[in-house]
Amino acid sequence: MRNELFDEVRQDPKEWGRMAESAIGAHLVNSALTEGFKVYYWRERNNEVDFVLERRGKVIGLEVKSGQDLSISGLNEFQKQFKPEKILLIGKSGLSTEEFLKLNPVTLF
């Protein structure tokens, strides 16, 4: 629930990033309940990964980057430490937020 119009939020990169990440998180949690996978968040010191999915021993790291900051050092460190099945960047330099929200996340496995 917000007072701003969609276009107003879309023009503010920081707020848009929060909204995009929240929408993706809601989509993942909702899908996890019906599709049987788990959703986690990973952080170690200054490195973080927005969403970590786990299903039947397979792990996937997801990072949402809809704003100006395109640093993926957390995703790189996560990949180095845990050797996930795959990593996925969602946003400007990867799969678009809109396209991600259309897919069933279990297909990533």
Walkthrough of the structure:
It is a single chain. This protein is of the alpha+beta class and 109 residues long. The chain has a single domain (6-108), classed as 3-Layer(aba) Sandwich (Trna Endonuclease, Chain: A, domain 1). Helix content is 41%, strand content 28%. The protein has helices at residues 6-11, 13-35, 73-82, 97-102; strands at residues 38-44, 47-55, 58-65, 86-91. It has a four-stranded mixed β-sheet, sandwiched between helices. A hairpin with a 2-residue loop joins strand 2 and strand 3 (58-65). The termini are far apart. The mean pLDDT is 90.
Structural class: alpha+beta
| Straight-line distance between termini | 33 Å
For the largest beta-sheet, the strand count, sense and barrel status come to:
4 strands, mixed
Gross CATH architecture: 3-Layer(aba) Sandwich
Beta-strand percentage range = 25-35%
Assign the CATH class.
Answer: Alpha Beta
**Number of DSSP helical runs:** 4
* DSSP helix fraction: 40-55%
Spatial sequence of strands, sheet with the most strands: 1-2-3-4
